[in-house]
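Good morning,

Both structures are done.
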Amino acid sequence: MFKKLSHGLSSIFKVTLSEKNMDKTMEKLKLTLLKSDVAVQAAEEICKATEKQLTGEKIGAFSKKDTLQKAIQNSIYQILSVENQFDLINTIKNRPNKRKPYVIMVLGVNGTGKTTTIAKMVHLLKKENISMVVAAADTFRAGAIEQLGKHMKKLDTRLIKQEYSSDPASVAYDAIDHATAKKLDTVIIDTSGRQVTNKNLLTELQKIKRVNTPDLTLFIGDSLAGNDVLVQAEKFNESIGIDASIITKLDADSKGGAALSIAYITKKPIIYIGVGQKYEDLIHFDPKWFISKLMGNTKN
């Protein structure tokens, strides 16, 4: 995991830093981050924060092996902790008005693993004794309703659906109405996954959100999508509004830059990460764990 970025950072950590080679070292750090799909703005912010921490340090301290490493770790942590970490389970269980379901709207383009991630979320919440219903509001992609339905059947969870080409906002509304009547805790709304350049998609999503006022709007980002995921996150955040993100396929990612970039661009927390294909392979995102992986820690 993150071998490319870890290897690049490890070579920087070996530098015996001095005032003379500060600029050269920061440039090398920036290039290493950019090669690992870290957004330019995020890479520059990390370098700026790192240099600021080192400024004023005594020259002798620069010879310590961990001085630069700690500064970079702190700079990355600042980006990943743009807001207080969001605890979804506690938020659902302790919502002020328990007569109403907690509504989650899920966004993401085709191929990000959105449907599988929803299934993983259902599995995770059911383990916490949280009741729910899922809305099949992707009424555009052929097979989307059936694919989601297979997962919900395995997970013994009700799926609210209509015919293809039905109004997605109406499907979501029906699911919320059902959950309210049955006194269920949560509604998860699946949405159509087309490219963010599709204006009709963005208009459709805006309507779903306007009509159903979700409590949480989740962006699903594919860590293997490179710079494309940055464009997706930025566009969805500008057009729809993102409250938090889930990063998928992190187990297959050799770079690790996507998570950093999404956190920086959206200024919203990453709450879970996908690390495999099984329902159990959705885990809580811990910035400290993530950074330890970037630093080359192979344990756990």
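Second structure follows.
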Amino acid sequence: MKKFFQQYYTNLFLTDRLFAALGFCIVLFLLKFFFAWLGDIPEIATGVVLVLFFIDIFILYRVNQGIVAKRLTPKRLSNGDENPIQIEIKNNYGFRANARVIDEVPFQFQLRDKDFKLSLKSTELKSIHYNLRPTKRGEYDFGAIRAYINSPLGLISRRYNFEGNKVLPVYPSFINLGQYELMAISHHLTALGIKKIRKIGQSREFDQIKNYVGGDDIRTINWKATARKGGLMVNTYTDERSQNIYCIIDKSRVMRMPFEGLSLLDYAINASVALSKVAMLKEDKAGLITISETIGSIVPADRKSAQLGNIMNVLYKEKTRYLESNLEVLYSSVRTIVKQRGLLVFFTNFESLSALQRQLPYLKRISKYHLLLVVFFENTELKSLSMEPAKDVEGIYHKTIAEKFIYEKKLMVKELSKHGILSILTPPQKLTVNVVNEYLALKAQQRI
């Protein structure tokens, strides 16, 4: 009895069309007091509405599964990217049905607009497509798919519930990794906003001996091979490989600042995943270190096929902390973990010159043993504020302060350069492209 009640009453909803029909019957009863000639018309109309009401119930409930729907999603969502979501719905009734489909998306999106209306012919299958853009890593819990079905009579709606709860993890951005793979192998990078870089000198990692052709560097002629073959033979070299490329991510409070929904930590994580992928395509070893007041996660540098997955699994759970980073601990850890000289890409943020100067002694010590690239962020909100014309004295004050902070960022770049430390000052939105571009430039110049 309880199951019967749940099936026929908890999922049955009255429509506006039924209320309009009942309202019309009420009006007829009221008019009957003034117009006796209406006779039994109000009773007949009410009876017709009730008969149609029960016919509509019979039509919609005589089939157990009149509608079937399912949600098709990726196994995991990509943070900061548009992720495609698809709902397939099929009509098993013998008539055209009108459907209203509501997908209960995770509460993190705060969306109430995933409400779709469509008409389905008998046995017709239709797909609903939409995108979701998560801005935080973690687990996202999808609710049920609610489908409200009307027959051609349209007096009631029957609700169907599908899927139930479905949990999807949100990983660091991986959808656009293919674009950065192209950057690693393409010689035409200007189309992606990447400048062409002239190689300086040549690598000393031997590749092969080949026949001399016009244009080859005569300094690479292999005289022993030439004597054996009886024709000019030259040595060819390739880029240095198996270099250690470590992404060091600051998890302190300076990385909590959000831009376009993503925190600076999330931008740094997405860039680290892309850089690791490109580094392994270049046959370098990719590794990871996270730092706050203590050393966090460590993934030793490697280029095995599962390395990128290991890095993403670690970064999937990382969160910002509330204390300042301890770079003295970072220096000790780097000296212990990274035995061979490599490229260390340190993602952090300095809001003032004094903040940089506090950490500068440790950065200088690290740069003695490794090629250190410090990546920090432009405040795009302050930049927009500095470009707006001031309308009053308060506006002049705000604009002056914004320009002061922007100028300090430029001074930080010069301060780091003065001590032989490479740096990138970048808007958060362009972080990944700028970091990958800098890595490719350093590879082209044989600095690593």
